[in-house]
Amino acid sequence: MEGNNSPRVDDSERREYYRRRAIQRKRERALKKRRRRIMLFGTVALIIVIALVITTVNCIGSCTSSGKSDSVQTMLTEPEGAVSSAQENNAGNKVNSNVSQDYFDDAVFVGDSVTLSFSNYVEKQREKGIDCLGDAYILCAGSLGYTNSLLPVGDPNCVLPVYQGVQQPLEESIAQIGAKKAYIMLGMNDVGAYELDDIMENVKTVIGNIKDKSPGIRIYIESVTPIIKSMQGKYLNNEAIRAFNERMKSYAAQNGYAYLDIYSVVADDEGYLRDEYCGDPDVLGMHFLENADAAWEAYLLSHPEGK
What is the DSSP letter of 132? Predict the structure, then answer.
């Protein structure tokens, strides 16, 4: 009797096992379907959010561009010297802006330690999330001048700036940057050390090299800036700087280059660097504080091609 009952018990347990397995699989299939639906809904929601973000950003960009255009239009309709209420530089001073920051996206600024200070200012603004001269690259080095920029790499007196970890001639770095505009402020380290005629020959060589390596690049000459009254030297002084600037202004006019008078932007009524702009009054009396750099930026925005 026991032998006849055992199979029936086994079959019953087997059927119960398969029934439970079927229920479990059904539940698993249902769970997978729910997961797929959740993933699908999540993906669709993510796409919608991204689309909304892109639309919002485009709208903001469009409104900002419109605002900038309105500011320019306001500036054009106001009397000369009037201040546009819609434009302010990063120092909080209202300025007339002829161009937006992205005008300088394809620009490189070349200079010495004065421009190095400007570079620090620009980087600080960008770190704060403030658009400052677009994507402009600043290529500078302390003590750099037209004359020593022609020294070969490896020379003990070579002070050429480094680009992407490599010290190389200015024209090579500028070409690799891909700049279409070159704003050049050099000469402070030449004035007083060399004869003016010799400096001008080096100016022609340096700019010629840049143009040869970057055909079609637009050259912008920025004037050398003044020194404070108490730090006028025997050879390096504002009189010598102004003489150099006059030669550079004539050179720019003869060659169709823009000339930007940064000297006047930071000078006081007597032609000296304003005391409140000077960051090293007891050392050299020529380097800038951030308020001077902000004034420089404001001038670039309002006079990108010079006066």
Answer: -
CB 277 within 8 A of CB 291: yes
With 0-12 / 13-18 / 19 or more C-beta atoms within 10 angstroms meaning exposed / middle / buried, residue 271 is middle
Q: Is residue 307 part of a domain?
A: no
281: domain CATH number?
3.40.50.1110
For residues 60-92, one letter each, b for 16 or more C-beta atoms within 10 angstroms of the residue's C-beta and e for the rest, the string is eeeeeeeebeebbebbeeeeeeeebeebebbee
Q: Which tokens go with 24?
A: 């479990």
Name 220's bridge partners.
183, 258
Nearest to residue 106, comparing CAs of 25, 184, 182?
Answer: 182
Question: For every residue of 90-126, which 3-state class applies, written as one string?
Answer: CCCCECCCCCCHHHHCCEEEEECHHHHHHHHHHHHHH
Euclidean distance between CA atoms 202 and 146, whole angstroms = 6
User: Are 189 and 143 within 8 A, CB to CB?
Assistant: yes
Mean pLDDT value of segment 43-56: 68
* Structural domain for 136, as ranges: 87-302
Q: Give the span between the Cα atoms of 103 and 90, in whole angstroms.
A: 17
Question: pTM, whole model, 2 decimals?
Answer: 0.70
Quick one: 126 and 275 in the same domain? Answer: yes
What CA–CA distance (Å, rounded) separates 107 from 20? 74
Q: What confidence tens digit (pLDDT) does each residue in 69-96 have?
A: 343 333 333 333 333 333 444 444 444 4
